[in-house]
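Good morning,

Attaching, inline, the backbone tokens for the sequence recovery test we're adding to the shared suite. The designed sequence is right after.
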């Protein structure tokens, strides 16, 4: 056997094995094995290398595969292992000053507005950072940092999901550009006029 044939055999056998082992019937496994070897063009090389008993089985004596089995075999693919997508790495913004001189602190601002849920808090944060601190290129890391620093506020486990939901459902922020998150007119009106909510 040539080196090229050996390399071809080694790279193909693992995938062939996975497909064959996915069938429950031993007869179907044998037939599928022969078909795949033939399709891969390595049947003769495999026989020469291993002396596999398939060498003694003629084409005329090969067990038949039903139409349904052929269709299953044609569509069956080796399982691929999904890699666990890592969550975005949101870094802490060390130089974010929430107690600026000559300006309202975020703690006092939040106390005035009294946002009740996560999406209201996002709107308040974005409003404060954009309208009061005038931060340009506002990013998810800024917002996550405020949540982390604000005592009594639970930090979101997935800040990007919270931002997307706030943008699509409440329309108070625009995060189509995550490097430049904006407060929308709806958001400004909500924070300025809608908060704190009046008790009924």
């Amino acid at each position: 056997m040539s080196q090229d044939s050996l390399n071809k055999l080694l790279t193909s056998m693992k995938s062939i094995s996975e497909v064959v082992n996915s069938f429950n019937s031993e007869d179907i496994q044998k037939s599928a094995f022969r078909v795949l070897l033939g399709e891969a063009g390595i049947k003769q090389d495999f026989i020469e290398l291993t002396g596999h008993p398939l060498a003694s089985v003629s084409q005329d004596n090969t067990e038949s595969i039903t139409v349904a089995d052929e269709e299953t075999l044609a569509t069956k693919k080796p399982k691929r292992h999904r890699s666990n997508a890592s969550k975005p790495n949101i870094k802490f913004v060390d130089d974010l000053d929430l107690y600026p001189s000559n300006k309202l602190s975020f703690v006092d601002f939040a106390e005035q507005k009294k946002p009740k849920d996560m999406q209201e808090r996002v709107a308040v944060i974005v409003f404060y950072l954009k309208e009061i601190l005038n931060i340009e290129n506002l990013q998810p890391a800024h917002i996550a940092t405020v949540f982390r620093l604000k005592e009594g506020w639970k930090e979101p486990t997935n800040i990007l999901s919270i931002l997307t939901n706030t943008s699509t459902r409440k329309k108070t922020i625009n995060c189509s550009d995550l490097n430049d998150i904006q407060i929308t007119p709806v958001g400004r009106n909500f924070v300025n006029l809608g908060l704190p909510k009046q008790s009924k």
